[in-house]
Amino acid sequence: MKVLIAGGGSVGRFMAEQLAAGGHAVTIIDNDRAVVAKYKEVDASHGVTWVMGDACEVGALGDTGVAEVDVVAAVTGDDEDNLVVSLLCKQEFGAPRVIARVNNPKNEWMFNEMWGVDVAVSTPHLLTGLVQEAVTVGTLVRLLSIKGGKVKLDEVTLSESSPAVNKEIGELHIPRDSSIVAVVREERVMVPREDSVLRAGDEVMVLVNEESEEDVRRILIGG
């Protein structure tokens, strides 16, 4: 897989290191000459290519070979830059998948398909969701938004009063545009099947469509 990372800060460099170790071809573009000079030679031996340039400029993006990449990750520390990079990569170069970092959670509403963003990752929201997930039972908690919030990865720890307890997943009639993707029981991850029976205390991960979220909430929580 070919990956372009816009932003050579700590986040971008960590991602590049991990992806390159997995055998992927990774290119980082950054406009800080000192950063590029510092890491270019070191990372070359690990399969990471550095390009000096402003990712918000079409010409600089073209120099990275963005037209041939499978995934673009805009992870600079500036939300405006990440949005511009996402839009250019999607509209000018037809990038099949664009992931963007949200630095200020108040800006998350802008990270959608109109700006070329397929997946927006807001660290503050993700951390909040994980905290809620750890301490909350019987509440649907959002962990991740995809497609500008139209698709979400939610989690709920089933309470004793959940209408889904002691029922097979196939009996729940989950909407067609949503799906239970994993069940965690006693620290063990279970791949859900139609005949899997849910128990009180199960942590249920469900991929939900925006229009079906309330139906899923009713099925797993009640009320």
What does the secondary structure layout of this molecule look like, with pairings?
Elements: E1 2-6, H1 10-21, E2 25-30, H2 33-44, E3 48-52, H3 58-62, E4 71-74, H4 79-91, E5 98-102, E6 119-122, H5 123-135, E7 141-146, E8 151-157, E9 179-185, E10 188-190, E11 203-209, H6 213-220
Parallel strand pairs: 1-2, 1-4, 2-3, 4-5, 5-6
Antiparallel strand pairs: 6-7, 7-8, 8-11, 9-10, 9-11
The strand count comes to: 11
What is the CA-based Rg, rounded?
A: 20 Å
Q: Can you tell me the CATH architecture of the largest domain?
A: 3-Layer(aba) Sandwich
Strand arrangement, major sheet: 3-2-1-4-5-6-7-8-11-9-10
| SS content category | alpha/beta
Polypeptide structure, described:
The protein has 2 domains: 120 residues, 3-Layer(aba) Sandwich (Rossmann fold); 85 residues, Alpha-Beta Plaits, CATH 3.30.70. 28% of the residues lie in helices and 26% in strands. It has 6 helices and 11 strands. The protein has an 11-stranded mixed β-sheet with strand order 3-2-1-4-5-6-7-8-11-9-10, sandwiched between helices. The mean pLDDT is 89.
